[in-house]
Specification:
CATH architecture of the largest domain: Sandwich
CATH class of the largest domain: Mainly Beta
Strand order of the largest sheet: 8-9-15-14-11-12
Number of domains: 2
Number of helices: 2
Number of strands: 15
Strand content: over 45%
Structural class: mainly beta
CATH topology of the largest domain: Immunoglobulin-like
Helix content: under 10%
Largest sheet: 6 strands, mixed
Order of helices and strands: HEEHEEEEEEEEEEEEE
Distance between the termini: 55 Å
Radius of gyration: 20 Å
Length: 196
């Protein structure tokens, strides 16, 4: 296992542009002076999972890190006594954007709580290589309408339904391990809120 510090010390020269990213997508581009002193010590000690050298002066490295995959729940599944296709169609997660169409549901999906009342609903599922890597995984909308971020680590099916107020909201996944916290933010600007 090679730490980022060891990797950079061995591979970067005075004029190398090094791009560092983790699985969560955070990127840092920096001109290295042949050393890793420009990085915080906790980043220097992270393990390099893979790397690519376009040339001796242009190197990218991917670090091991926290990552949770976000995807739409299948339209054929039933949640809260509603088939998912009855309230969302063509939903996709591409990069950090969620797109598709949400249909207006009169009365909501549940008789009480956050899924009650008229509105639009988004069903998402979450997956990770190893859930035991995490001490917490919270998901939700920002701003929310009262539920805030919800812990899913103990949720057996790792999916959720979220009431969308408008497409200026963003969807957040906050992943925490013993050593790190990573926040992924997904734009909802590409969602279409369909009235009929």
């Amino acid at each position: 296992m090679l730490t980022l510090k060891n990797f950079l010390d061995a591979n970067a020269n005075a004029d190398a542009i090094v791009t560092v990213s983790n699985k969560g997508g955070t990127k840092v581009a920096k001109v290295s002076a042949g050393a890793s002193s420009w990085l915080a010590s906790d980043v220097q000690s992270q393990i390099v999972e893979s790397f690519k050298a376009r040339s001796a002066a242009e190197i990218s490295a991917t670090l091991e890190g926290l990552s949770v995959a976000v995807a739409p729940v299948s339209g054929s599944e039933t949640l809260f006594d509603h088939q998912v296709s009855s309230f969302q169609t063509s939903v996709a997660v591409t990069g950090n954007a969620i797109t598709g169409t949400l249909k207006f549901i009169e009365g909501g999906l549940a008789p009480s709580g956050y899924l009650s009342g008229d509105g639009y609903f988004l069903a998402l599922e979450f997956d990770a290589d190893n859930w035991s890597d995490f001490t917490s995984v919270k998901v939700g909308l920002d701003p929310s309408q009262g539920s805030g971020l919800v812990e899913i680590l103990s949720d057996p099916d790792k999916n959720g339904v979220f009431k969308i107020t408008n497409t200026s909201q963003v969807f957040k996944v906050v992943m925490t391990s013993a050593d790190d916290t990573v926040t992924e933010t997904y734009s909802l600007a590409g969602l279409t809120l369909q009235n009929s």
